Amino acid sequence: MNEKNALNYYKINGFSLFTRKYVFVDTTKLLYQRIFSDMGITVLKSEEFRKEGSDLSLIIIKILKRDVEKFEQALTEVRNKALLLGYIEYDQACERLYRLGLGERNEW
Are 61 and 19 within 8 A, CB to CB? Predict the structure, then answer.
């Protein structure tokens, strides 16, 4: 998978009737908060993880299942805005997230 095609989010497996958990890449400015709010996405829980000195964060989030489609659209906007703001390493971080999902754990 090349960097341009790397997803910036992945579903975290688990069972719930009403919610879904995801992990995704964002900037330390937390661009997702404004975008999610504007799109009416209900965030039930979120946690931010950041490597010291990095301008990017991994966000673990729990949302309502009814918001999944809007969530996926919103994360396209997060990526576009991050690149527009000059976070040139954003796609590389998405590629590392992709590799982590495949079991290559020493990427981060």
Answer: no
Helix (H) or strand (E) holding 11: strand 9-12
CA distances from 90 to 13, 19, 84 (A): 24, 27, 11
Q: Which residue has the higher pLDDT, 29 or 4?
A: 29
- Domains, the chain, with CATH or none: 3-101 (3.30.70)
- Angstrom distance (rounded) from CA 49 to CA 57: 6
pLDDT at 97: 85
Q: Say whether pLDDT at 107 is over 70.
A: no
The token pair at 75 is 């994360």
pLDDT at res. 106: 43
Nearest to 6 by CA among 81, 100, 104, 105: 100
SS3 39: helix
